[in-house]
Design goal:
Length: 260
């Protein structure tokens, strides 16, 4: 009887330990049962591709026009200008190839985007980039930009999760994030607000840089071009949503700085 009583106590103790362990596991790791994932579907990919083309083609067209104008200005005294008619189509083809390649890389990265939301954390995963996990208690604020993009800010400046407006089940995501922290409206950044004006000023500065002999204009145009290139390089290097290959390739802009 004593042995039977001891075995019964041992069984009850083991059952208690097992139930307690399962309870702790479910409490500390809610993602095992409660997880919602969001991705960008094919319709979202098409919208992103269209928006990117609408933004890049006008700027690239202006850049080609400016490049052709500078070539003509610098070689108008030359007896043989036939190379210009070869150079210009080559530049157009190179720009087209660059847009196609960049668009392909953007689509690949966007397709790999996964936003995972659990009871205690939000995680962003993209191929070839470090995963970003923000725990709910460390989320400083959640904001929505005028174009619909969602920005989740953590405790530190580099702890940011950017979610495109083209993500599938957008309204469900908004409701879920609102339950974590009320979503506020994000102010439009300076570059987003004046992107076209900044691009036009940069192209004008390039024209002035290679056509004028006035030292004041040369200095001003040089400072403008250098500041834009440095800001662009810094933005790429500090953006955690950009893959390492793109970051390495961005250092090519240093050759432009050296040429200036």
């Amino acid at each position: 009887q004593i042995n039977a009583y001891s075995r019964l106590r041992l069984k009850l103790r083991l059952h208690f330990i097992l139930i307690n362990g399962l309870s702790c596991m479910l409490t500390n790791y809610p993602k095992l049962l409660y997880m919602r994932q969001f991705t960008v579907d094919e319709d979202g990919i098409k919208l992103i591709r269209k928006k990117t083309l609408l933004k890049s083609i006008p700027i690239v067209t202006l850049a080609v026009i400016v490049g052709a104008y500078l070539s003509l200005q610098n070689n108008k005294q030359s007896a043989n200008q036939s190379f210009i008619y070869i150079f210009i189509p080559f530049i157009i083809l190179a720009c087209g190839f660059g847009i196609k390649r960049g668009l392909k890389r953007l689509v690949t990265q966007t397709k790999s985007l996964v936003i995972s939301i659990t009871d205690n954390a939000i995680t962003r995963e993209i191929n070839n980039t470090p995963a970003i996990t923000l725990y709910v208690y460390n989320i400083k604020d959640i904001a929505k930009s005028p174009d619909g993009k969602i920005i989740i800010q953590g405790s530190y400046k580099d702890e940011v999760i950017n979610i495109p407006a083209e993500i599938a089940n957008y309204n469900e995501l908004i409701a879920l994030l609102n339950s974590i922290k009320p979503i506020k409206n994000a102010p439009t950044s300076f570059y987003q607000k004046y992107r076209v004006i900044v691009s036009l000023i940069t192209l004008m500065a390039m024209v002035v840089l290679y056509t004028t002999q006035n030292h004041t204009y040369l200095i001003l145009s040089c400072l403008t071009v250098v500041s834009v290139l440095v800001q662009g390089l810094y933005s790429i290097q500090t953006n955690r949503d950009i893959d390492e290959k793109t970051k390495r390739n961005s250092w090519i802009s240093l050759f432009v700085l050296i040429a200036i």
